[in-house]
């Protein structure tokens, strides 16, 4: 979403109108889920995607029409042959696509974009709010720092996943545009160095924690968001984990990994992944039980870490871990 907000502000600064194309609802087998977006200017698509193929091509055409007509509209597509508007797609799903005309003089939407970018840069929780009544769209925003801007909705609807509901003739959508959860990576070795650049374009905020200052530099981690220098024996002196946070344990010693597992199981961290072989996992599970941890508590640890793709090299292991973090983030949003 950062790129979308930045692009909209750039268009407004150039005094150019644009159309924000959003998948408002998605049913069945469709190219993209609700919330997918692309931005369209008078020359065509500027950035983003709603799934590619003919649905995106047709939506780009409709967005340009909406741009010159200065109108907002909602279009329904059935992705099946012989539909009223046959797109040559056989997915079998249905999507509703919102074409939201954005006037460059709309100071209110400008304010929303600026507020969103401020919260994204500060890595704070924030939500975009959309109210759709017929073809009339109203946009709003919420963060703890700003409160509600333009639109107010029940706080219960501000979840870590996209929400939609109806009130009378209006439909509301809320979705997080920034979340405070971080990925804490314990150990700055080869796998960590391969993992951080994979996570960066996936909108994961990364924190590299090590007891060796030589590894906590932009030379080793040019795309890391934060560095923490501290002991692995008492991480509570340096950080405080929340239920939104992810943890990846990959230090240079099994002993250190185990010390971290003991501490991490006492935190509310959402995800705790530990690198290692099946033999190491079995030994550490046994040791944790010996310390009094119940099987249900130990089950919070994802060991060995990553999706099983027979990864061997640091680059391959990084991909398997990133894939699992994407999966866990989606599950967290659906909780």
TrEMBL record:
A Pfam match: XdhC_C
Domain XdhC Rossmann: residue ranges: 183-325
Protein name per the record: XdhC/CoxI family protein
PANTHER family for the chain: ALDEHYDE OXIDOREDUCTASE MOLYBDENUM COFACTOR ASSEMBLY PROTEIN (PTHR30388), XANTHINE DEHYDROGENASE SUBUNIT A-RELATED (PTHR30388:SF6)
Annotated coiled-coil segments of the chain: none
InterPro entries: MoCofactor_Util/Proc, XdhC_CoxI, XdhC_Rossmann_dom
Domain called XdhC- CoxI: residue spans: 13-76
């Amino acid at each position: 979403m950062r790129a979308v907000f930045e692009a909209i502000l750039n268009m407004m600064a150039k005094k150019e109108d644009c159309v924000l194309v959003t998948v408002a609802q998605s049913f069945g087998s469709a190219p993209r889920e609700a919330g997918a977006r692309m931005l369209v200017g008078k020359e065509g698509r500027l950035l983003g995607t709603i799934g590619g193929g003919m649905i995106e091509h047709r939506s780009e055409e409709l967005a340009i029409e909406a741009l010159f007509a200065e109108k907002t509209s909602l279009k329904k597509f059935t992705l099946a042959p012989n539909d009223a508007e046959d797109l040559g797609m056989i997915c079998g799903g249905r999507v509703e696509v919102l074409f939201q005309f954005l006037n460059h003089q709309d100071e209110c939407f400008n304010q929303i974009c600026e507020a969103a970018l401020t919260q994204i840069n500060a890595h704070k929780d924030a939500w975009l709010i959309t109210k759709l009544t017929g073809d009339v769209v109203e946009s709003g925003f919420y963060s703890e720092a700003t409160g509600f801007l333009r639109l107010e909705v029940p706080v219960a609807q501000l979840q870590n996943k996209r929400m939609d509901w109806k009130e009378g003739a209006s439909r509301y959508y809320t979705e997080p545009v920034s979340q405070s959860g971080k990925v804490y990576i314990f150990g700055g070795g080869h796998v960590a160095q391969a993992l951080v650049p994979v996570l960066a374009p996936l909108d994961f905020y990364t924190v590299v924690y090590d007891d060796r200052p030589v590894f906590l530099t932009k030379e080793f981690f040019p795309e890391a968001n934060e560095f923490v220098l501290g002991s692995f024996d008492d991480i509570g002196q340096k950080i405080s984990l929340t239920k939104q946070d992810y943890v990846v344990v990959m230090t240079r010693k099994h002993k250190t990994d185990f010390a971290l597992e003991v501490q991490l199981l006492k935190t509310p961290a959402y995800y705790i992944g530990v690198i290692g072989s099946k033999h190491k996992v079995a030994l550490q599970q046994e040791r944790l039980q010996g310390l009094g941890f119940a099987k249900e508590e130990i089950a919070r640890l994802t060991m060995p870490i990553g999706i099983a793709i027979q990864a061997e090299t640091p680059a391959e292991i990084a991909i398997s871990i990133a894939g699992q973090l994407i999966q866990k983030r989606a599950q967290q949003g659906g909780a």
